[in-house]
Amino acid sequence: KAGVTQTPRYLIKTRGQQVTLSCSPISGHRSVSWYQQTPGQGLQFLFEYFSETQRNKGNFPGRFSGRQFSNSRSEMNVSTLELGDSALYLCASSWGQGSTEAFFGQGTRLTVV
Amino acid sequence: AQSVTQPDIHITVSEGASLELRCNYSYGATPYLFWYVQSPGQGLQLLLKYFSGDTLVQGIKGFEAEFKRSQSSFNLRKPSVHWSDAAEYFCAVVRLMNSGYSTLTFGKGTMLLVSP
Known about the structure:
By secondary structure, chain A is mainly β.
């Protein structure tokens, strides 16, 4: 069974641009969560989607948004990129009945220059 | 609010020696607790989890953890460390959000270095 797939693995963007990251969950999983990981702040929760609806949202500005499609695949978008958005973005999928066991992808390393 | 503290940022252990990584949680009821491991440039892999029942839980790769309610701790242990265990380890707790749904809250992580 395939794991969580995140694309692309690496990305370099310029300040002010926007970026879209993709996450394909494990087959049958309906919940997708996104996390930002930086050396200074550690792992911070961005948002969670379940059945195409945002169920939870972390404390991030409105520049960070996401969506989930009917096949449970999810995208997150960051607009007007800032240098501080450079991070590893991790996606996790679960069955959806609470985040009792989450499976993580390898992440997308975003570098903003 | 539910939170997790990992007091040690870095730990160095000799190969073959025993390991204990500390995790303290803040939660009113019985928490759902996890340990994840992250190798450089990789995602997180679940080592073990505690929901209820036996307070000593076994995980993959020879790891175990003990839930101690009196100490609000969930420390990770391994009797004999291998060089391949060098990685960053994260303790996590399920946290209830204002939405009424839950998500994972992570500690800051402990970087494990293994010396020859």
